[in-house]
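Is this the right way to post structure tokens for a design question? Let me know if I should format differently. Anyway, here goes:
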């Protein structure tokens, strides 16, 4: 019997991935950029045990047994096993053993808090550790579990390159800058609602690809320019530019969601109030101090610098006193080590 436990963090996109050119292989229409959070905060922990005595594969998510007949899960498993089989040093004897997977998120699953990103990053990394290929490039495998998962395998600010090969071999994640590059960067997550979202990202983006003209414009005319400018902002530690592009991309992404037919409505009234408060706050200060971004849900992620955290927390608590914002997660940095692992 062999057992491996890994922890992997969530990532929050500042230039969003929305739309696939190949749904089977999860190949995106555009590049995206995100920051990987620290594993102290929002993360997934997964233990995988392989044994010659297990009669079937099993998976438990947050204490509930789920079906193993999940296409994405099976694809990740077979891809890691295929790579391992080609590898001289892998533990070939265990490739045929069944496995039991036990996975836990320390935050609400599927509430637009990127649970599939940390979940599949963790699964793929744990499988790679189990079979002894954890040093390989794994993001192209994690991508096939959930697109955004490929970015959680690297720390700091990370770009998922859409790639141009039909087989997806160059659709991988790369680190733009490490977490040490901009150590003053902080994230606040304002949990507006932690219920499971109504329209999954997978379904929502598939409908956008079929129906949204605005998505075509976003992909053909906007994202590449923003990727270039945001990369420069990161290298230069230019918060003004970073914040502007982050907010504009979030707004365009949600505009695409509304342009989708039927529309995907992820932000709610409180989300929009948060947007207003942030713009007012920046206006009063005559510069961008805080940038918001919203994934496929109503919860806000605020990027800001450490020196501004106390004042921004004060304003948030003042503007949303009645429990409208259920909790505020304070992410001390974007410092992350590669996924942690341990083997017995
Ligand atoms: C809005 O990666 O969850 O968070 O590839 O279908 O699993 P699938 O989608 P997923 O979509 C994430 C969408 C997003 C933007 C982002 O993280 O870039």
């Amino acid at each position: 019997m062999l057992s491996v436990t890994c922890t992997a963090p969530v990532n929050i996109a500042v230039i969003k991935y929305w739309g696939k050119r190949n749904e089977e292989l999860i190949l995106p229409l555009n590049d995206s950029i995100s920051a990987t959070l620290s594993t102290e905060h929002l993360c997934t922990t997964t233990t995988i045990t392989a044994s010659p005595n297990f009669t079937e594969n099993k998976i438990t998510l947050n204490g509930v047994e789920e079906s193993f007949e999940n296409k994405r899960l099976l694809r990740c498993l077979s891809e890691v096993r295929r790579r391992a089989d080609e590898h001289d040093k892998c533990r070939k004897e265990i490739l045929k053993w069944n496995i039991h997977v036990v996975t836990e998120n320390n935050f609400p699953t599927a509430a637009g808090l990127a649970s599939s990103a940390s979940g599949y990053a963790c699964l793929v990394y744990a499988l790679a550790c189990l079979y002894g290929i954890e040093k390989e490039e794994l993001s192209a495998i994690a991508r096939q579990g959930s697109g955004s998962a490929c970015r959680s395998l690297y720390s700091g600010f990370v770009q998922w390159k859409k790639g141009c090969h039909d087989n997806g071999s160059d659709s991988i994640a790369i680190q733009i800058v490490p977490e040490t590059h901009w150590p003053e960067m902080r994230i606040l997550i304002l949990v507006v609602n932690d219920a499971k979202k109504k329209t999954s990202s997978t379904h929502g983006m598939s409908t956008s690809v079929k129906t949204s003209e605005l998505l075509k414009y976003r992909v053909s005319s906007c994202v590449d320019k923003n990727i270039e400018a945001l990369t420069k902002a990161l290298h230069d530690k230019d918060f003004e530019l970073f914040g502007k592009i982050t907010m504009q991309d979030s707004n365009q992404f949600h505009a695409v969601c509304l342009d989708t037919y039927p529309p995907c409505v992820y932000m709610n009234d409180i989300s929009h109030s948060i947007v207003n408060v942030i713009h007012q706050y920046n206006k009063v200060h005559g510069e961008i101090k805080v940038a918001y971004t919203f994934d496929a849900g109503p919860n806000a992620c605020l990027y800001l610098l450490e020196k501004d955290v106390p004042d921004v927390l004060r304003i948030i608590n003042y503007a949303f006193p009645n429990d409208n914002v259920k909790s505020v997660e304070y992410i001390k940095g974007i410092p992350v080590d590669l996924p942690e692992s341990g083997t017995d």
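Format looks fine. Someone answered above. Worth noting: Residues 121 and 212 are 30 Å apart (CA to CA). The pocket of DP6 is lined by residues 13, 16-17, 26, 32, 116, 146-148, 201-202, 295-296 (CB under 6 Å).
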